[in-house]
Amino acid sequence: MSELSIDDAYVKWADDLVRYATVLVGPDDALDLVADVFTRILAGGTERWSKVRQPDHYLIRATTNEARAHARSGARRRQREGTMFSRAAPASELLRDRDVAAAIGRLSVRQRAVLYLLYWEDMTEAGVAGVLGIAEGSVRRHAQRGRNAMKMALT
């Protein structure tokens, strides 16, 4: 049970979540995405938040889910507008090399989330599975597909 208030959770983890969101959606949308996550949590009420057992895992999962929804809505918008264009590579401190940034930008949100948590946060496959709420086999599959895509893009 979370004894941490939503306000305290924001103060404690917002910067880390913005860095994580930057990897998932790019620097232009990362701050808004994290704000949306906390807005949804507040809308759910403090009673629901108080039942969260691992607030950090909950927030990472919520950020990942919000990024996936963001990616889907962006794709629908581009399709509606009839403008299919390649997404510009995110320019951030985490992604300095243009080729690497472009390759990461072409990965799915789930692949980016798994690779970020495995390599930047140095989590185990079991840890990533627990945080994202998916099976370890799914973590391995997304990691392998992401690594393969990166290898193909960078060779």
Summary keywords:
155 residues; mainly alpha; Butyryl-CoA Dehydrogenase, subunit A, domain 3; 8 helices; globular
Short description, anyone?
It is built from 8 helices and no strands. With 155 residues, it is mostly helical.
Describe this structure in words.
With 155 residues, the protein is mainly α. The chain has one domain (6-154): Butyryl-CoA Dehydrogenase, subunit A, domain 3. Helices cover 75% and strands 0% of the residues. The protein has 8 helices and no strands. The longest helix is centred in the middle third of the chain and has 27 residues, at 55-81.
Structural class, from secondary structure content? Answer: mainly alpha
User: What integer value in Å does the Rg equal?
Assistant: 16 Å
User: Tell me about the biggest sheet?
Assistant: none
Helix content: over 70%
Architecture per CATH nomenclature, i.e. the level-2 architecture = Up-down Bundle
Arithmetic mean pLDDT: 85
First-residue to last-residue Cα separation: 47 Å
Number of strands: 0
What coarse outline follows from CA principal-axis ratios? globular
